[in-house]
Structures are given as structure tokens and as C-alpha cells.
What does this fold into?
Amino acid sequence: MDLPFLEAVAQGGLVCDGAMGTALYERGIFVNRNFEEVCLNQPELVYQVHREYLLAGAHMLETNSYGANKIRLAKFGLAEKFLLINQKAVEIAKRAADGAAYICGSMGSTGLTASQLRRIEDEVTAAYAEQAKILADSGCDALIIETFAQPSEMRLAVLGARSVVDIPIIAQIAVTDEGGIADNTDPLDLALEMREWGVDVVGANCSGPDEVFQVATRMAESKLPICVMPNAGRPKRLEDRQIYLATAENFGVFARRMYKAGIKIVGGCCGTDPEYVKRIASASRMVSPRRIELKPVEETAEIKLDPIDLADRSSLGKQLGQRFVFSVEVNPATGLSTEKPIQAARMLTASGADFINIADGPRATVRMSNLALGLEMQRELDIEVLLHVCCRDRNLLGLQSFMLGSHVLGVRNVVVITGDPPKVGDYPDATGVYDVDSIGLLNIIDGYNRGVDPAGKPMAERTSFVMATGAEPAAMDFEREMLRLGQKVQAGANLIMTQPIYDPTQLNRFLEATSAFDIPVMVGILPLASYRNAEFIHNYIPGMSIPEDIRDRMKKSGKGESARQEGIRIAMEALEGVRDRVAGAYIMPPLGRYEMAAEIISEFGDDRSLGKNVPGRAA
It folds into this structure.
């Protein structure tokens, strides 16, 4: 790999491989055999597992040496093969990686009880030191000390390893089924202790994604790099084997959630296979900085023009900061017809919506081009659309062609997003491009607005785009979210449009943090359609959380129309709470229920005046 390991960790978006034991078991290595000895007896089997993980997108391969400390090997009568097994494990992994992945030496527990450990602590520490030195000397880029149930034994392993090696150490505590640590140590306290022992990357593994996420996000408060490797859900015994019930698709959703929370490395533990790693790799492309870096216009162009005044670019630009505006999301239907979305847009504009948002391949599904639908709406309804432009599906050349072509065809308002990774629908194996992220694309469009292309060359004409950008007020890593939002504003964003937000505390924190940017904010509103809808959003949509009291209200509201009315009331309460601090609202009707958006706009009333404290408000 090009970067030193810890530099790659700092950038984030790293993908580790999945389970080795599960893979060997599925290839006929039964549980009564020692999995590490397979390195000597059937090395090509181990090699093949490593290659499959590499081809699935892993940036890190763990050696098949988890149980290869001398104390554990002695139980199988293999202590005399200790040196050879560890050396061979590294050799196989390096051959499989062929320079395309970091090699991480895996070290697991001795299997001794707590009382046994206390009697021979010095011997155990020495055994870990001996294994760590062999792995490091054989060419590992880092060590992964993992799946320790008790922090006390993990401490011996880390101290032993750190006494003889200076390569990076990752240490992962095993998480209980309840989402905690076996001895009830607070995960944050443990993370800080691990740093004192000499650990470079702290983490959690070997439980379901939800449980690992609980521990890892608590550890993340330490500001240390975090690594997670969940199991494929919780296992269920079926006849003579353990079956893991979480699908690879679900695992990909959790991987994205973990990356968005600021976790640097995501891999898989028990029950995961290359398909799970493939979904992790897809999620990583959304947050990984391994993409083309574009500098702002100020750093590349000798000759540049001032952008056209915002009010002269479009109707949206003219109204921002002057009156409270509503935009409602209406997306293309499947197939070729534009009739239903245009009918919905007609009804919404008649109800008071000012603009229509159209997503770009929402949830990584195949729909008609949003540009085609947007042009039809603008032609038939004489309205302006806000066209989402996603960095996922087009490379750097395609994005530029799309932007220039959209401008020629009369689109002036764009919402620039990085985009969900391909993970659902009919094409989960489609490649997410991500040549640039939303910051990079904003830099490109800002250049166009100044008459300069990304190479710094002058253009014959300027564009006049109004650029909106997204933000997540409920982001787990709020500091990172605000840092990136500041970079988006610096790149030329004219408008901030938030993810739906239900917690007033989180929203107030966000509005206070963004007030210094002095650009308009449109608050995201997603009226809840049912209790099930609320639970799905809370548990499965990264960057969104719904407080328990809101979910309880939806549960008590029942089903059908009564639930929808409660969802509208909750949305109105959120909107009324901030209407004097935001420039507008961006409504996302749930499940195509556009009448809910129309009702919210109607209940808001005809007074569209702005509060005095709205950022970007015209004097």
C-alpha cells in the first residue's frame, strides 16, 4: 500500500477482511482441528481465503495466526511448531496480498481462565511477546490483538507485544450480547487505558453490529482511531452448526453507519464472508478520501470572474433570505412515465410549495434521469427544480459534462451530494465511482460560476448555479460533520439543506454551530408515516436518529390515518420550533405520501416572513 499504515488509518475508510475460521470450516476444516495448523498442511486453502477477501475490496488482511500463541497451541500438541506456524501465516497473507493490502498479524487469547492467568502472568506476557516478535519480523505492517473477553488478559497481550515491537498495534475487546464489556468496564475508560498500554488503534469485535456499534461509539469519545469487526448478527443454532441471520446487505448498511460515525476501520468477525466485505468496501467508498483532489479556484486560476449575484441566478437565489421557502422532494417513478411525479408536483405547488427537489438515484436504485424529469416539470408546470447531483455514478469527466449540459438546458439549482454507496436494489455490485466527493464537486461548480474550469483554464462564459449542500445535524461525529460543512461553504455552497431532524437539542446545536457561516439553512422535515417507519429510520438510516419519546408517540398513535396525523403534528412541532431561525423547509414525503407535505405547508400558513436571526437574511 502507498501510505504508512497509521497514515492510512487517519484518512479513514479502511476495510479489513472477514472471518477466517468460518471460511475454513465451510471448506471442510472441522472444529476439532486446529485452524492455524492449516497454514502448514493446506496453505493454498488459507491463500484462497485471503485472495477472496482481497478481491472483495479488503485493504487489510489478517494472518491466520489468531490462536497461534505457544500456550494455546500446546493444547493441540503443536507448541514445537509455534515458530513455523506464525511465519507461514505471514508468508501466505503476503503472497495473497501481493502488495495490495496491509498485512496484520492476528493475536488472540490463550484460552486460560482468569484464575489461571493470575498465577502465570509473566509466562503469558512472554508468550505474547514471542508471538508478536515473530509476526513483526516476518513482515507484518501491524498487529491486531483481538477478541479478548477480559481487559486484563488483553493488557498482558499488549504489554508483551509492545515490549518487543514498534509497529502499530490494534486492540479489540470482545463485546457481550448486551452491548457491553464482560467485566462492566466503561468502553471510554478502557479506550483511554489501552492508549496508556501502547495501543495505536482501539476497537471492538465479535458481537452483532448493533452491540459493537454501541461500544465503539462510546470508545470514539476518546478521539482515538477506532476499528470495529462485528459478527454477521447473532448466531442461531440450526442442527449442528451456527447460522448468522444478518444479511450482507444489512451489514453494508451498518458499515456505512459506522464510517459516518467516524470509525476508521470496519471489518468482519464470526460468520462474515467475502460478500460481507464487498458491502463494507462499497460503504467505504463514500467516506474514503482516496479520490481526485481538486483545489479551490483561488489556488488554481490566474484569471477569474466574480460569480453572478445570487438573486440573478434563479428564482430560488432571488427568494433565499427574503422569504420562507418550501421545497418538496418528488422523485422519478420506475419506468418511462413522468405522469405521476408531475401530478404530485402540480398538487404540491398548488398547495404552496415553492420548488421541487429531485434526487439522483435515491438509495442507489435505478430510476429515470432526474435531469429528464426536472426538465419536464419545468416545462409543464413553469416552476424551478432543485436537481440533486450525486458523485457516485459519474467519473470526473462525466460530472463535468452533466453539469454543463444541465446549465445549457435551463437547470440553475443543484443540491451537491456525495451519494449513498450501491448496496440495495437489483445492482448491489455496481461500482461507486467517487472520483470526487461533494466538496470536490462544489469546487468544480464554483469554478464554473467564476468562468474557470477545474484545470484552472478560463471559460468563454460563466455558469449561474445556485449550489445547495447537505448536512446531518444528528451526525455521530458532529465535529467531523461541522469541519466538512465548513469546507463545503468555503467551496462555494450557497445553501445548507439538512437531513430530517427530530431532536430539538441536536437541531439547536447545529444552528448555533452554523450561524457563523452566514448562509441560509433549510431544515429537513420527514413526517413519520407509522411506528414501523420511525423504527426503520432510527435504526437503519445513517445520520438520522429519532428520540425515544417521538417513537413512543408514533407507537401509541396506532396505524393508518391516525399515525400519519401524529407524524404531521410531530413535523409541525419541529418546524414551528425553528421557523424564526431558518430560511425554509425541505420536506421529504414518506413512501410517496405527498399529501402529508401539502398538509404541512397548508398548516404553516401564508405568513412567509423570515425571523430576524436567520443566517443569510437580506437586510
Summary: Residues 407 and 463 are 7 Å apart (CA to CA). The mean pLDDT is 91. The first strand starts at residue 14 and ends at 15.
